[in-house]
Amino acid sequence: MIFMRNSENYKFYILCIIPVLFVSLIAVAVLWQWSDLPIYPDEIAYRMISGRTWQDGLVQKGLLILCSANAPHVSWLYVPAAWVFSQYDRFIAPDQVRMGVMALSFSVVPAALWLGWRRRHILASVAILGGFIGTSGAVLVIARPEILLLCNVALVMVALALSGEKRKVIIVPTAVGLWGSFYLSSYVHLEGIMLFPLTFYAIVCLTCELLPFLAAFAVTAGGTLPLLPFSASLHHGTCTGYPGIAVLRQSQVFHFADIQTAGFKNWFFNKINLFIENISYLPGVIRKVPLTPYVPSVKENAFANSPYNIDFFISLSAYFLLIGAFIFTIFYVYRICFHVFKWKGAGAGLRALLTDRLATAVILLVLPVYAVLVYDAQNAFYRSAAFAVLLSCALVMGLADLTGRWRLLCWPVALLFLITAGMSWRANERLFEPIIAGYEQGGSLSLFRDWKTVAADVSALSRETVPPLNAGGIVVDDLTYGALRNRPNLTPITYLGLQISYVHLSAWAIVESRGLNGVIARCAYMDALHIPTPHRRRELCAVSRREWLAGMTKPR
After folding, report:
1. Residue of 296, 302, 422, 448 with fewest CB within 10 Å of its CB?
2. Pairing label, strands 535-537, 540-544
3. What is the pLDDT of residues 491-533, one digit of tens each?
4. How far is Cα 275 from Cα 462, in angstroms, rounded to an integer?
């Protein structure tokens, strides 16, 4: 204690304790509120994409069974990733993954706080709460590929905070972690490569602390560049012979015709408004029909007696995320270009990039985020919420780079995000916590089901069919997947229905063409797709291909 009192850093440490505790507690509280949310269908879908490749012979069949003829073989570079995700899928049940996902999402908070600590500007770290406003916490607890992007950026902030560090015991694990997060992210989803420039730059900056620049560049390039073509080929998404599915996929991405049809002004502001609506309460979540089928709807007059306009603060914070990140990016591009013209010479640009690390990192983070937001014609709610966290990380880096009187700008920013996150936490506690424990809508599954009974019913149904469905090749739904996930060649029934609607084939035609053995799913799904249900146990039904064919050929 005597040493600390005599230390010049003592006052700084004391002043840091309050914002560190506040930010950490608010982030944990917001995530914890959503920990009981039901299992979102996409969680099962991405488990099937990434987790089943190993046991399906290193062929990533995807979710659309009609496109399985175009299924790519996993490159030898991604064999370890396929094995890692197969172990995750094998040993962690869908209802047991929440806490792990929450921990990965929370990783951006200590990373931002440490960056602010190392830059002696802890108040800048409060901007990380911009990713925890409104209903964005509902996305940060579901197991989607965006969670790996958050881990990647968290490690980038750690790498930036280590500027000047020379100890191998710290540099090497951080660089390996950065590479590993990018490696796994690029395997799971094509959007994982959006952070390749940022990851590459951060690893080079780290390894430059131990190696000459050319050696650091060569090591980083050798470890990351070969992944790009293999990731692109793994997620190519072609589906030869089915133009209906091609139309579906084209409708999910940006086309310049969209701007020509709506006009640039309308298209631009519609993009911004949809981004904000995806994380706010109004007008989507407070309607009788929610904006997404995942977050519960509440009464329209839920905020009638509220003393504050919470949605105003959420909208203001979201606008600040978008505009603030854009302003920092433009300013940093100008600053780096100014240094290039000032220093001149062949190495001027390289010197500017390596010395102005926070500026370069902000540019390499914000530009890909904006590019993907534009490219995503769906304006998916899960992507908006995850990218709000990425933009808040960019704000943390930008604010931590301020000097002199410019640092005073951090006070209003910190107050805005503290107030908005605190109000969001209170609103979520009042509106959603009482109803989400047993909530199920849009195909989602409550975590509090009797999963042992479900597993017993699935096992019994698989034995009752003729022949028994023990060898795999089964159409499953989100409820039955957990009990069948160790069997090969499974197909999700939800995406089977999607293909039926776009290619105008019957369920039988698709199942027969791909040689599947049967179906075990909820009876409601099977009835909707006109699949016979000769075997029933509670809400689950089953049929083998032989029984299905016999039912169709049986004379009436």
Report:
1. 448
2. antiparallel
3. 888 777 777 777 777 888 888 877 888 999 999 889 988 889 8
4. 44
